[in-house]
Amino acid sequence: MADIYLIATPVFTHYDIAKNCLENGKHVIVEKPLTNSISKSRELLTIANKYSKRIFVNFTPLYTDPFNFLCKRYENSRQDIFFINCSRCNLGIIRKDCNVVEDLTCHDIAMLIYFLQDYPDINSIKCYGKKCFSDNIDMITIQMFFPKHKILCNLYTSWVDNEKKREFSIIARNEKIIYDDIKTINSIKINKSNIKIQKEGDFLYKFGDQLIPHQKYNEPLRNQMEHYYNCLKHNLPCKTDGEFALKVNEIIEAINQLC
Q1: What pLDDT was estimated at residue 2?
Q2: 198 and 127 co-located in one domain
């Protein structure tokens, strides 16, 4: 199996290092986001195709067992989802090489694209960012609309919020699910309260139980590396390859232009 290089450096250096590796016959694993521009990401994809090399991008939240549980649960019922709320905040670390969107929001964008198997309407994106302590956006709230199943999503990201939070909440027709990524056990809670429409057009408010499904826990980074290994060994498609990372880049750039 060919060599593979891991690139975990400031975002603005990703392009030059990855380009050098690919042109010298090496596969690459790149820390998110792939690069700091759409054009650079596209060029890396062109180079990778030219030399028959693979680009893997480190969106680790997609490789957690609870997230995979959610994907399987809604695999055939995404049309029942009304709204998704993503919260990702912490007190620091304020980075100088990128803004909070490129550092943290990119994870939630990646989760939404993969979970919904859809791409947001770029024209639907609305956002408000604030520079609190640096020349970059330190906190932001974003709304976007996924057209395939008409799902509205809200994202809040901050590295100046003193409460650490990593939540992915789904409001659906028959339930609400909260996935708390900070917890390694009991990380998913399912509230079965919902609204039913009766024949007469009235609404029935049903108050159901709260369920905590049993889940195994494997280290996400281990899951991710095993996936990359299998993709290389068996020439399989990767969940977070360069093409996927390019989609995330496109949304990041649209958000940055609005802010």
Answers
A1: 62
A2: yes
